[in-house]
Amino acid sequence: MPSPVIKKLSEFGEGFKHHHENYEAYSISRIRETGGVWDFGDLVFYFPEHFGFCYGVDKAIDMVFETCERFEGRRIFLTDQLIHNPYINGKLRERGVSYLKRDSHNLLVCDELKSTDVVVVSAFGTDFRDILSLKEKGVTIVDSTCGAIINVWKRVEGYAKKGFITVMHGKRNHEETRATLSQAVKEGGSYLAIENKAEALELAAVIRGEMAEKVFLAKYPGSAPEGFSFDAATCKMGMANQTTMLKGESLEIQDLLRKAFITRFGEPATLERFKSFDTICGATQDRQDALMNLLEKPLDLILIVGGFNSSNTSHLAELAYGHRPFYHIEGAGDILSKQEIQSRNPQDGHIEVKRSWFPSDAKHIGITSGASTPDVTLVEIIQKLRELKG
Ligand code: SF4
Description:
Elements: E1 5-6, H1 26-34, E2 37-39, E3 44-46, H2 55-70, E4 76-78, H3 86-94, E5 98-99, E6 118-121, H4 128-137, E7 140-143, H5 147-161, E8 165-169, H6 175-186, E9 191-194, H7 197-207, H8 213-219, E10 237-241, H9 247-265, H10 267-273, E11 274-275, H11 282-294, E12 301-305, H12 311-320, E13 326-329, E14 340-344, E15 351-355, E16 364-369, H13 375-389
Helix pairs in contact: 5-6, 7-9, 9-10, 11-12
The structure holds iron/sulfur cluster.
Iron/sulfur cluster (SF4) binds next to helix 2, helix 5 and helix 11.
């Protein structure tokens, strides 16, 4: 029997419902509606215009908790973390949801699955080969892949069908990047994944014929499928990016690769050989722009709240870097005392304990959260800061 596949909350059928009780906080919803300031007198919290859950995360959470209710008594698995947030992942573990293992090629190990099992595909999507394996097993698939990511897949599929190599600006080990790049392979195409501007500069040198293709591929293992080779003198490339990257960096990378093509082949030929498209999602962009506006206020301290492995939150932290004291924390548990805080350094990704972090005269505090951070986490942090302030 073919696997039933559920792709929308409404496809659960009559009586489906939202599950906002798992993350919403009335006080923070009010802040959104009333202008972004929560004034306690001795402490004033300033919020940006956009923060917290995006529509993709909202949908994924509704779908997984609805799955828990509808399929109670059946084994429920996730392909990966549903979203990069410890609070929500902890809640799912409490409900008995577990993770499928992955093999050395990052593909799901499905041997032990039975047709009565239910597998939820995370908001990042998954490799197309995983979906084939799940269908072979006949499990029920609840696919919560975000629509913004599926739009990027369509572009990548289009590149592959037209013989373009997909060049993706994204974190190679991120679930979304892997899922997106697999769409190129599905259509018989290939890809190169670059993480930052430094790598893009080297790829530009390859395009100009100043660096050998195989030197680039050897330097960045995992940037292309095994055994892949290409000839910059004849290839065509199409750009995409992970939806949560910094837009400025993605545009800069597109520009420098386009210029490399123009240098080598001239403008008319570049139109045929190089395509680009900004695939940053609107929700990510809104949160980055809103934070930039917040940073213009005279604040004593800034807190960026979200999973340490959350891509969009780490980019918010990069934007805040250098603007007054700021800390990227996952939740109230990272505030160890008035003297110590555990936070992630956006420059090297290290989690470290910082001392003397809370200025004794701090009053005006900017606070924002990534697209996978529930509002209840902000309330817990605010309560903790008020306790510290006494
Ligand atoms: S950040 Fe954007 S792409 Fe990612 S889940 Fe949210 S809406 Fe979708």
